[in-house]
Design goal:
Strand order of the largest sheet: 1-2-3-4-5-6-7-8
Strand content: 35-45%
Structural class: mainly beta
Length: 149
């Protein structure tokens, strides 16, 4: 019976083990959460009610072109293809103050699609339906840090 012999690799000066000859794999870059991705200033590109959004942490300010301003806190929850956003209106028109607006949104880089039912409405939108007068659907683009789109 022939005995198997192990070939020895030549010694490499300065290295004690073969493992010392390769780099460790680079860990995967952590995926950012929806909360991380939505931060910043957003300007309407399309939609029937132009607005500017400012998102900082879990707070949002929505300034509509007609001068109406809403301020509140929000939560996000991944729900399949869409992200569910629930905004508690803390400041704004008196008839909406204290109500929750149920929204859906999708983010693709610096583009945000956002659709909301009227504050206080019990049903969250299920699709971006620009033709439904009960919903407000907007497409927004993130402003760069130097103020350009």
């Amino acid at each position: 019976m022939a005995r198997a012999t192990r070939a020895r690799s030549p010694a490499v000066p300065g290295y004690a083990h073969l493992e010392d000859l390769w780099d460790e794999p680079v860990p995967n870059t952590p995926r950012h959460s929806a909360l991380d991705l939505i931060q910043g200033v957003w300007q309407t590109v399309t939609g029937r009610r132009p607005a500017e959004f400012l998102v900082s942490g879990d707070h949002i300010t929505v300034h509509f072109a007609d001068g109406v301003i809403y301020m509140g806190s929000f939560t996000l929850e991944q729900a399949g293809r869409h992200v569910h956003m629930s905004i508690r209106i803390e400041e704004g028109p008196a008839h909406h103050k204290g109500l929750v607006a149920l929204c859906i949104c999708e983010m693709d880089g610096d583009t945000l699609r956002w659709c909301t039912a009227s504050p206080g409405h019990a049903d969250r939108p299920t699709a971006f339906d620009d033709q439904n007068p009960q919903l407000l659907c907007l497409t927004l683009r993130r402003e760069s840090r130097d103020g350009r789109r």
